Each structure stands twice: as C-alpha cells, then as structure tokens.
Structure prediction request, 422 residues.
Amino acid sequence: MMKRLLAAVQLVASASAKYTIIVLLSLLAGLFIVNVQRFSGIQASPISGVSTVTKLRLPTDFDVFYLVAQMVWRGEIMQAYSFATMGPLQEALSGEKVFMPWTYPPQFNLIVAPLAFLPLGMAYTLFTAITLVAYLAMLRVVAGRHFTLLLFLLFPAITITMVCGQNGFLTGTLIGLACLGLQQRSAMAGLPLGLMIIKPHLAIGFAAYTLLSRNWGAALVAAATILATSALATLLLGLEIWTAFLGGVQEAAGYLKQGLYPFHRMVSPYAVLRTFGAPAAAGMVIQFVSAALSLLIVILAWRRGFSLRQTLGLTALASLLISPYAYDYDLPIYGIGLALLMPDILRLARPLEQALVFGLSFATGGFGLLLSQLKLTLTTEEMYLSVAGLTLAATLGLLWRILNRYHSEASLPVTFVTQEAG
Prediction:
C-alpha cells in the first residue's frame, strides 16, 4: 500500500507528468496576481508620503520593507530600529496595532531603499516577481529532473513567502548560488555567502562548512563582501547606523524572551517549546542543543566522507535549526537542501522513509500557511502551537539516518566465501 501511495505521489509530481508543472506554475501565477491586486489597492505615496493600508487586510512584512525604504530617503532610518518610534508608524498603516520590529543589518536597508521610488503595488510586484523567478530558476538548476516534485512539496512555503512579500526567495537564491559554487570549489561561492549578511543567522552552517573544507578562497571572498557592503552602508547611512542596528537586535532579544513574536510562524525548536508553555530559559537551552546537534551533523557529514551534494544538502537544512529566529518564509533555503538530497532520498530511502520525508516537508511549510489563512493572530495571552520546528528537526534527523546508514553499509568489508570442490 505504501509503495503504491509513493508511486502515485511521484507520478503526480514528477517531471514525467507534464501537466503537473503547468498546473503548479499556473496556481503560483494566480496567487501572485491576487497579491498584486491586494497591494495595488493601497493608497501610498513614494518617499515623502505616508502609506495607508486599507481595512481589507493587515499590513505584511513587505509593507514594512516599503516603510523602511521611505525612512531611508527621509533620513529617519535610525528610528526604524526602535519599536518605540517604529510601532506607531506601523500602526498608522492600518489603524491597528501590529508588531514587526526592524532588526535587519544595514545592508538590507540599501536593498529596499529603491522601492520607495515606486507605488507600493508596483514595488511589491517587482520585488516579489524578480526574487521568485530567480529562486524558481535556481531550484530548477539544483533539482534537475526532480524540479516538479520539489515544487509540489514546497508549494506551501513558496505561497506563504509570496503572500507576506518576504525576502525568502532572495536568501534561497543566494544559498543556491553558494551551493553551486562550493560544489565547484570556486572562490566566487563566497560572494553569495557574503551577501547572506542580510540574514547572517541563516548562513552559520555554510560558514562552518566553508572553514571545515578549507575553502579559503571562498572564505576570503565572503569576508571581503561583508566588509565592502558594510563600508558602503556606513558611507551612505552614517556610522550611527551600526549603533542603532545593535540596539535593535538587543531590543528584539528582549521581545523574543517576552514571547511577543508570532511563534506559530517560526520553525525553530525554541518556538516549539515556548508555545507548549516552557519558559524562555528552557527554550533557549533546547535551541542551543539544536544548534550544536545541527552543526555536529555538518561536521560528521564532512568527516565521514559524504558526497559534497549530500553534505551541502544537510547543511542547508541544519542552517534553519541553529537560530531561534527563523520563520516559515525562510524555508526556500530548505528547498535548496531538499533539492540537493532528492536523488539520494529516492535512491536510498525505504518507502516509509520517503513518505515521511514528503509528508514532513509539506507540513513544515503548510502549518504556518494554514494559520495565516485562518487569520489567526498572536498576542501574549493568545498562543498557537508551533509545529514546524518539530517537523524540520525530524526531517533533518531522518535524512541523516538514511545517508549515514548508506555510508555505514558501504564501509563494511566485503567477505568472499570460496567453496572447495568435493
């Protein structure tokens, strides 16, 4: 029965089912058009004006990107890192209280700044379309003939990233480029790794692997990229931007401890523990254990001679379990890891293991999407369970088991038995 179910899933979502890819891409295009209409219905003035979100929807992450872009050109970007000033500006978007502190490194301010020259709807259209197309193209390159299957499994994660207008497609593309470069041992792999400074906590696993593999060229290029972009941000935004940024990070850590973030959208073990009622200290201990085990998997994969594709795939998954601050819209990175590992999943995993990987992958992105579509909101008195941290950790553990079993069996000595003629 399990084999038949897997065969049906792979048939529906495989490259051989030529209409599946058309249907999936058509659905994504339809969802994109709907969201463009949502954003285009908002009255917003570029740079100097004040954006106003209609009562038809709550403000999303992209609204904050657009607000920050305006603040850059008005010379108010320092205020973005303090929720005391940022909060009222966000509330002015819709007349309702929202909680979206700004903690991005200064480099990301430069990326969103040009958006202020466009109306909000057009800014969303260009930002999301460009990053989505880039990500899908990268996923196609990495996944090869398994692209349709990956698109099927990642559909919830792609949808939630598109709906909120987040930068997950951008970071997923950067990680994909880094993986391609690392597979070729190219020093230029350090360029996308260095650009991951916009979300450095999601690149820790790759930084560890780069040092383990002694790819000093990539490490130097990554360091140079970080220094160059930091210097540019300092030149354009002022030296004080770093003090504001560090203050914002410290402020956000306090908010995380207080449980003010939407934990049901997070994919970290910390969020899982907090929504089950554990105190912040206990959640942070478990998160530290998760980070240590995730990095250990990267180290062991390298030491035990896993293929480069396998090691990088595990590293992509592990990177999402290191920081407590990881969301479902960061899962495009998971997609790159799953694409790297898919040939081994289909070749080495048992039918039940394949079914678990597919189910866990769909659920990891689907849970946050489900709650979002139900329009559930999080307050300090109203807590919804976080599940993605469990499913993501279970997926990483299962894939480690599959690959480690294969390498353990491959390393067993072969015994030749001879039989004498009687």
Notes: The two ends are 47 Å apart (CA to CA). Confidence is low (pLDDT under 50) at residues 376-381, 416-422.
